[in-house]
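FORM 12-B: Structure-to-Sequence Request
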């Protein structure tokens, strides 16, 4: 009793509060240091110093960034002429460095072909002022827009679902289709660093979900969980350090829309955790150490009569700012 009172009083004392605040700041510094260390260790060098790169994924990063610069330049209404000398030199150099290296992962070596084609298109443009038909695309957006009623029905009918029908199996094909839809997301210089780790075995699903704090009330109902990550080796230089969450978040949202389009429901699950917890999830989910975890997504068919939270939205005036 006395000990309890003493401990309560201690907790309330200003010096103990100050000590705790200091300890929490120290913890924050160590978390930032851990994030920074991982990024500096694994990310590609900035292109200012990208000559002499030998890591195959860093070469993929640098080549992709550069071939995309040419694609962008060539797609302009009036491309500059000539342009891209430094970029072309760097691509040539990095293609030589990549020659003979085995493909990096399932992504294969497509970026090598795109780099070669971009170089050829650039030469043709700079020499002859002609556009290469391989890089000359018409816009696919319908000029009159999409059917607004359909679009607003589509956007307005998605909500986070927390009650799933466990008896309905989710065909792998549908998950793959949703991922293929999500892969249409934009990404910084087309780096496409995203990965979706999928778990459908009930034991795996539970073990993964147990590491996340926002699903305890409906964990037992979730038939599938996705962990969206990005490969940090596909980002370069310190300037791109925050881009990981932009690109990963864009992909995650597209995946949710893709699932919605295919009749599946989902609930994003925050990954607001310390580095230790990310390490635990990587271990549990067999996720490579070079991947940053962006978010988890609970996926399944909504249960009959499933409810949604009100989740009201700010009025438009609270969001849009015309200047
Ligand atoms: C990044 C992110 C993390 C989220 N984390 C959780 C979570 O841990 N648990 C949960 O039940 N809902 C989670 N949500 C769902 C939000 O509560 C929900 O999106 C929000 O209230 C809007 O509702 P709606 O998705 O139904 O439109 C998360 C949403 C996002 C975007």
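FORM 12-B RESPONSE
SEQUENCE OUT:
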């Amino acid at each position: 009793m006395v000990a309890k009172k003493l401990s309560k009083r201690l907790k309330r004392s200003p010096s103990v509060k100050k000590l705790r605040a200091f300890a929490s700041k120290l913890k924050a510094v160590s978390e930032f240091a851990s994030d920074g260390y991982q990024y500096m260790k694994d990310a590609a060098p900035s292109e200012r110093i990208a000559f002499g790169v030998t890591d195959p994924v860093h070469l993929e990063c640098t080549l992709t960034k550069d071939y995309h610069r040419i694609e962008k330049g060539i797609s302009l209404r009036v491309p500059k002429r000539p342009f891209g000398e430094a970029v072309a030199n760097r691509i040539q150099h990095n293609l030589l460095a990549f020659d003979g290296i085995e493909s990096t992962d399932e992504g294969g070596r497509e970026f090598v072909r795109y780099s070669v084609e971009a170089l050829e298109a650039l030469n043709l443009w700079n020499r002859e002022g002609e556009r290469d038909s391989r890089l000359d695309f018409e816009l696919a957006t319908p000029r009159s827009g999409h059917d607004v009623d359909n679009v607003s029905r589509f956007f307005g009918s998605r909500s986070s679902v927390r009650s799933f029908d466990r008896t309905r199996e989710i065909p792998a094909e549908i998950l793959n289709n949703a991922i293929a839809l999500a892969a249409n997301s934009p990404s910084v210089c087309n780096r496409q660093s995203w990965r979706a780790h999928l778990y459908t075995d009930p034991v795996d699903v539970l073990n993964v979900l147990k590491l996340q704090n926002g699903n305890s009330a409906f964990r037992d109902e979730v038939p599938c969980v996705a962990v969206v990550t990005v490969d940090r080796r596909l980002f370069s230089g310190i300037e791109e350090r925050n881009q990981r969450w932009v690109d990963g978040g864009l992909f995650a949202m597209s995946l949710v829309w893709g699932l919605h389009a295919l009749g599946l429901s989902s609930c994003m699950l925050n990954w607001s955790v310390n580095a230790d917890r990310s390490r635990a999830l990587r271990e549990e989910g067999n996720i490579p150490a070079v991947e940053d975890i962006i978010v988890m997504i609970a996926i399944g068919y909504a249960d009959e009569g499933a409810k949604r939270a009100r989740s009201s939205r700010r009025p438009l005036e609270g969001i849009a700012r015309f200047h």
